[in-house]
Structure formats: structure tokens, C-alpha cells
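Batch 3, record 17
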Amino acid sequence: MCTVCGCGTEGGHDHSHGDLHFGHGPAGTQVAGMDQARLIEIETDILSKNDRFAGANRQMLRGKGVFAVNLVSSPGSGKTTLLCKTIEAMGDQPLAVIEGDQQTANDAERIRATGAQAVQINTGKGCHLDGHMVGHAMEKLDIASGSVLFIENVGNLVCPAGFDLGEDCKVAILSVTEGEDKPLKYPDMFTAAKLAVLNKIDLAPHCDVDLDLYEANLRRVNPGIEVLRLSARTGEGMRQWIEWLQANRDRKGAQSAERNVREEGAL
Ligand SMILES: Nc1nc2c(ncn2[C@@H]2O[C@H](COP(=O)(O)OP(=O)(O)O)[C@@H](O)[C@H]2O)c(=O)[nH]1
Ligand SMILES: [Mg+2]
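Prediction for the assembled complex:
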């Protein structure tokens, strides 16, 4: 069970309007037989351990000027497909991929088939990647200076929102088939994301989906979120996505270089 995100939790009552709401209280979740103070203590302990690992990852990535993206979404929104197309579009620009799934090495194999290096993490019963897992995966990769590191998180719109991996930003991948209300139902994920990629727009004419409402709902939960409409299948929107990645990678590279010079000067 993931105590931090509250999956598998039970208990707690709120009978207002006949609905049940287990997110009340300072911990934002309920576990039968456990009070809010104890829950917060457990959450704080788990997250502070995670933050130490994530901090070490971030320091290593900063030293090399690597731009790291944590791709978060529900299963099947098109993360691996988008990654394969991204690798193709980036040509010989340096990059590496960490793949997270509960089971199988299927996605890492799909990535390796493009010629890119990839490491698979299987989380077993775990519902998200954490900083410790990602640190070990990073050791297995040859991560070049100034490259992009893609981390495909476990398909889950809840738990990965709470875990820092040392990345520069989270990018939420949504597909038009999921429905416009998902940002409102799973706000934590979209609050944590810098960019939302609205994927599978080739399917929009076949679904009763209002793309403007989808975007408006994203901005209701996160007014600062950037949004890109894209189809990994047809390639529409790919140019904007690649430009977004390159601009952020170059900015990170410049900031890291400046910082490295400052730190060397201070020695
Ligand atoms: N029509 C359409 N299908 C897509 C698109 N992107 C991904 N898919 C399909 O969606 C399914 C799930 O994709 P996958 O990349 O495995 O999703 P992941 O679980 O998020 O990694 C596959 O059948 C893909 O071919 C897209 O832009 N348009
Ligand atoms: Mg995948």
C-alpha cells in the first residue's frame, strides 16, 4: 500500500450530500485505525527519505546539464509511443530513457528498438517510481552532458504526483479518449505538471470530446500549465513538442554551466 498517496486506504466518513469524501483532514487521506497525526508522521518520513535520493539525482543531473523529464499519465495515454517518435525526431541528439512499469520489460525493449539506451524498472506491487529506484537506473545508463533524460513513470494519475525523482519537471500526457473532466478528478497530477500534452488528437473527431474544455479544465487546476495538442500517430504537434524539449534542455545546460563555473571559482 502507498501510504503517501492513500491508495488502498479505507475508513473515514463524510456523509454530506450522500457522497463519500476520504480526503478530509490534514493528511488529505484516511486509514482505518490510524489518526491524522500518525499518518502525517509516516508520510513525512517516506517523503523525506525519497527527497534525499531525489536530491542526489538532481545534483548529478545538474552537474552534467542534463534536462530530466518525468512523464506521468494514466496507462495507455501514449507515453511510450510518444517517446519512440521523439527519439526518431531528435535524431542523433543525446538522450536516455528510464522506463517504469509494474511488470515486463516491454517498454524498454520498444525504446531500445529505436537505437536509444533504456533501462526498465519493474515496481512489482509499487504504484510509482521513487528517487532511489531512479538513482540506480541512472547508474546503469551512460548519460551524456547536455542530454535529455526521459523517465516514463508507472501509468497512474495519483501516486506519481507526490514523488520527486530529481527531475526538472513533470509532463502529463493525456489522451483525448480519457475525457475532459480528468484534470478536475485528479488535480494533484496536473498541479504538479509544467506541461500537459493532449495526445491522440487524431481521434478527437471520433470521440465526443471538447478540446477547448479539456484545456480550460487543465487551467482551472493549474493556471500556469502549458498545453500542447499532439498526435503521436500523425505527427501533428510534434514540432512544437521537440522545440519545447530543446529550449528547456538548452536553458538547463546554460544554467548548469554557469553554476559549475561559479562553484569552481569558489573553491
Ligand atoms: N490513434 C492514436 N493512437 C495512439 C497515439 N499514441 C499512442 N496511441 C496508441 O495508444 C496505445 C497505448 O500507447 P502506449 O504508448 O503503449 O501508452 P503508454 O501506456 O502511455 O505508454 C497504443 O495502441 C498506441 O498505438 C496517437 O496519437 N493516436
Ligand atoms: Mg508505456
